[in-house]
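Table S2 (continued). Query chain:
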Amino acid sequence: MRGRYERRTWQHDPTLYAPARFRRACHYDVFLPEPLAGFEPMLAAMTVGVVSDAERRLQRLGAGSAEALGALARLLLRTESIASSKVEGLQVDARDLAHGEARADTGGKFNPTTAEVLANIDAMELAIEEASSTDAFGRDQIVAIHRQLMTPAPNARIAGRIRTLQNWIGGNDHNPCGADFVPPPPEHVEPLLADLCEAMTDQSLPPLVQAALVHAQFETIHPFDDGNGRTGRTLIHVVLRRRGLAEVFVPPISVVFARDRDRYIGGLTAYRDGEVDRWIETFATAAIQATDLATSYLDEVAQLTERWRAMLRAASNPRADAAAWTIIDLLPAHPVITAAIAGAVTGRAKASIHNALEQLANAGVLAPVAGGRRNRSWEATGLLDLIADLESGERP
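Corresponding output:
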């Protein structure tokens, strides 16, 4: 077992309301995990093979320059962030989210769930930027990710704050007795986080094994009152980026986790029970499935982009340096686009952008969305259907 259980007694706080049956003192078992730094798991030969296969596929997925693959890289980062939210029950339709994202970029309004999912995208981007630009990734970075993630949430008061009370998973809302899992008490959280950050700086383990262990340990610690799952899945990509295994693309591992949530939760439980080999095999298999899924959809999006180019060429065939060609390259990152977004990401003049959007609409590449002339948005033809299938984990 990767830790030990300790029996505790829960005393009801009389200042807080609870039904009569929850006011009595009761016993629960809290889990105290072993430190992670310096831990070297013994893996079966088959698991080692799965890990090696997953790492090869991840390296193959990331072959190429970040500049050349930027829009596709953002598409996968966006997909991973949305799927991570879906694991926690935050469901947003792909089309609604894309339109909400466009409204967010122009100062418009959108619903609270959309705001939370968009915050997850921002938190993922923040984490990857920090992973690439700092020598050490520690507690402050984890807190910053959580703050970015939870600030738009209904319980925003907890954003970026390490918990000071006991939390639990499952059971009832009034006490941890009968809960599915009770993480370590609050006085253990800071030392365990320090140990986790030390383990993140170590490079003695294969990158994928390190990412799997860091994620499982973080979920075991559960250092925040809410948002632990999304923060913990972000740390997977921090490790993969820092170790150079996913320098360009974010593999949509959460898509696989969301598709088979029971297997994912079972793997995390196996880790705590000491079945580390089982968890790492589960994690590496998910990475393989995510990489294959991403590769398939990147090919589909590349083919769609070429169709858009052919449509524009047939309709007006603008000059080679026209803004319309540049916007086509950016559409995978912005499936719903506005003049403001197009201008910001291309750096082109306003008149040039409006002319390009009109050309693309006339060619059928873009479909205008309802809205005033000033804040009009356009949807990239066929792209959101592909994205919806990718986010659901379906093979094209």
